[in-house]
Amino acid sequence: MKFRLLIAAIAAFAIVGCTTTSDEGGAVEVNTNIPGLYTPGPSEAVIYYKRIDGQYDDWGLHLWSGDIVRETSWGSAFPLTGISETYGAYYVVPLKDANWDTFNFIVHKGNTKDLGGLDHTFERSAFGVDVFTTEGSSDLAADPAM
Question: Where in 56-129 does DSSP place strands (E)?
Answer without folding.
Answer: 60-64, 82-84, 88-94, 102-109, 112-113, 120-123
